[in-house]
Specification:
The complex is a heterodimer of chains A (245) and B (227). Chain A has 245 residues and is mainly α. Chain A has one domain. Helix content of chain A is 82%, strand content 0%. Chain A is built from 8 helices and no strands. In chain A, helix 2 runs antiparallel to helix 7, helix 3 packs across helix 6 and helix 4 runs antiparallel to helix 7. The two termini of chain A are 31 Å apart. With 227 residues, chain B is mainly alpha-helical. Helix content of chain B is 85%, strand content 0%. In chain B, helix 2 packs across helix 6, helix 3 runs antiparallel to helix 8 and helix 8 packs antiparallel against helix 9. The longest helix of chain B is centred in the middle third of the chain and has 30 residues. The two termini of chain B are 27 Å apart. Classes of the chains: A mainly alpha (245), B mainly alpha (227). Chains A and B meet through helix 5 and helix 6 of A and helix 7, helix 8 and helix 9 of B.
């Protein structure tokens, strides 16, 4: 067991193990996503108020969950990298940033598409929308900082600090925005009841959530492998790999 | 060489930074001018209807204060980075976070405090009531130190970069959102004649949080930037 963890800490073994896992995870992800989409788009009943257009929720809600989840993972990996000087944690943190930003963007876009027919407008300064937008800015800041620092090792450590500062700030930002919104205009049309959802709608949603998590795992492993190759390009094992293939 | 206590190092560093700033007064004046200028641009852009100005005035003043604070941030560590004193701070026996706190405090005294003094003038320009102006000063007194503290983290992360300015704004502005919301809201609430204790408590809480956590983060960021 411990041997496995130590092996995962070495870039070479991680590269190999991740390469072996990716196809299986991808297959599992595709399975969950197909079943989830089928259940969500065909089997689940239409909403009594929103009709068919609520079905965008099966992409929107998991994406929004992932956007927060990945930021926490990024900050956690960054903290591990800073404390124990684990290269792999740094790699994971920075590989997560782009994916997290994409999920945040996806959540915003799908929410906007849903909002047009439902609320009659593409954008509302609702608390959730606003904090999601600021989350996107936080992700973009992390990515910009990583691109600006030339030395990749320093860049990863600097972005880890930023991610940790961000993770402390996210709850503050979220509640300040919520408070700002309620002070301004009170609860608007945007309230929708999460717990009072029908089971037939809930199951596809959870399936999609698992599928998105798996998707993240696949993509983050792929990105981490690229990042490792780039960082370790002067080591012998990468040269052997390049010569062999 | 005699080693001095940390509190002595704190006051010495603070005094040094203040002396340096007073010898280069332009650096103190510029953010102030910027603050006034940006605020004066808004009525030109959106029209001089007093009712409109009164309702958006608090937000305008606070956004201008935010931008002024952000633009002056670069001077926190820049000159020390260029002449190498920053490396001496890193090597000194005193905890870096305390030294960072002294530098941040000096920066706030130089660039943040003057904003408080011109704020009433801007309040007059935007037709704010007396209570609103008082609240504005109070929120600036509580909020601008937070801006300096949080900004110092961003500066520490970007100090080694050649073109850090743009990235600094990307890093720092999202983190300024809570201060902006609470402070601008407090002024708005005060001009409506409602109590603002909750806003002030929250701003003070943010200040306490920033004072206790941001020097540590800034010190860690400086160590990485200079490694």
């Amino acid at each position: 067991m411990w041997r496995f963890f130590h092996q995962m800490g070495s870039p070479k073994h991680f590269y190999r193990i991740a390469g072996a896992w990716i196809p299986w995870l991808a297959l599992l992800c595709a399975g969950f996503m197909l079943v989830g989409l089928y259940q969500g788009l065909w089997v689940a009943p239409a909403d009594y108020q929103q009709g068919e257009s609520y079905r965008i929720m099966y992409v929107h809600v998991p994406a929004a969950w992932m956007s927060l989840f990945i930021y926490v993972v990024m900050a956690g990996a960054g903290a591990i990298g800073l404390i124990w000087h684990m290269k792999l944690a740094e790699v994971m943190a920075i590989s997560s940033a782009h994916i997290g930003a994409s999920f945040t963007f996806l959540a915003l876009v799908t929410g906007s598409i849903w909002g047009k027919p439902m609320w009659g407008t593409w954008w509302v300064w609702d608390a959730r929308l606003t904090s999601e937008l600021i989350l996107l800015f936080l992700y973009l800041g992390v990515i910009a900082l990583h691109n600006a620092v030339e030395d990749k090792r320093t860049a990863a450590r600097a972005t880890s600090i930023l991610a940790i500062v961000g993770v402390v700030n996210i709850p503050i930002i979220h509640y300040s925005v919520e408070w700002w919104n309620t002070l301004h205009q009170g609860p608007t049309v945007t309230k929708f009841d999460a717990p009072s959802i029908d089971v037939r709608m809930l199951i596809p949603l959870l399936l999609m959530a698992v599928a998105f998590k798996l998707f993240y795992a696949v993509v983050v492993l792929m990105r981490a492998r690229c990042e490792i190759l780039q960082r370790e390009r002067n080591t012998r094992w990468v040269r052997q790999l390049a010569d062999g293939s | 060489m005699k080693t001095r206590s940390t509190s002595r190092a704190f006051t010495l560093l603070l005094r040094r930074d203040l002396t340096l700033a007073f010898r280069q007064r332009a650096e103190m004046i510029n953010p102030l001018l910027f603050f006034v200028l940006v605020t004066a641009l808004f009525p030109l852009g959106i029209g001089a209807d007093p009712g409109l100005l009164r309702s958006i005035g608090p937000g305008i003043i606070w956004v201008a204060a935010l931008l002024a604070a952000m633009l002056s941030l670069d001077s926190v560590f820049r000159s020390d980075f260029e002449d190498g004193s920053l490396e001496h701070f890193l090597l000194s026996a005193h905890p870096l976070s305390i030294l960072v706190l002294a530098k941040t405090l000096a920066h706030w005294l130089i660039t943040g405090l003057p904003l408080l003094i011109v704020a009433p003038l801007l309040g007059l320009l935007l037709d704010l009531s007396a209570e609103a102006v008082w609240t504005l000063i109070l929120t600036l007194a509580l909020g601008t130190p937070v801006l300096s503290m949080v900004g110092a983290i961003g500066v520490a992360l970007t100090v080694g970069l050649r073109r850090g300015g743009m990235i600094l704004s990307l890093l720092v502005l999202p983190l300024y959102v809570p201060v902006l919301i609470f402070a601008a809201n407090a002024v708005e609430t005060a001009s409506a004649g409602l109590p603002i204790t909750a806003h002030l408590s929250l701003l003070t809480a943010l200040l306490a949080l920033a004072c206790s956590l941001s020097p540590v983060a800034t010190a860690a960021a400086l160590k990485i930037s200079l490694s």
